[in-house]
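Figure caption, in words: inputs first, then the predicted bound structure.
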Amino acid sequence: MTTTQIDWSKIKHFPELKERPDIEGVLPDLIYDLDKFRDILNRTIIVSPVNGAIVAKSGHSPNSYHYRGMAIDCFPICNPKEVFYTLLDYNPFGGIGIYFDTILRNKPTVMFHFDKRPLKPSGHRTWWFRYKHKRHYPSEFSTFGEFFDTIFKHIAEIQS
Ligand SMILES: [Zn+2]
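Bound structure (zinc ion present):
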């Protein structure tokens, strides 16, 4: 594995990532883009402390972009809706997953997976959410709106 070519002087919000073993082999743009996203969101983002939350050799789904150094799992410390509103304005990620079955510091906390996969040939991003350990994609819903309504319903549940 080559050393990462991240210029850490360009990273404003995540200097601690430099020390993580699972940063090795990451696509630098992923970290630059997350840093910019964090800046616009203006909320703390905690990268998942699990080893392999960035670059991984196992522990993710078979075609995971974590195996290519192109994905990161993180916990934005805010209402998850704010993450969506920010993504409307700045979304450099080809894949976005929202996880409703994750725990941070013993508390159920919504986790976001962001990755740098290319857009689909149609020009669309790949979106999914995970609820009770099962993944759901927009294709399961009659409309894209229904898919997002379901995500927002799960956000409301976790907050109640
Ligand atoms: Zn992930």
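The chain has a mean pLDDT of 95.
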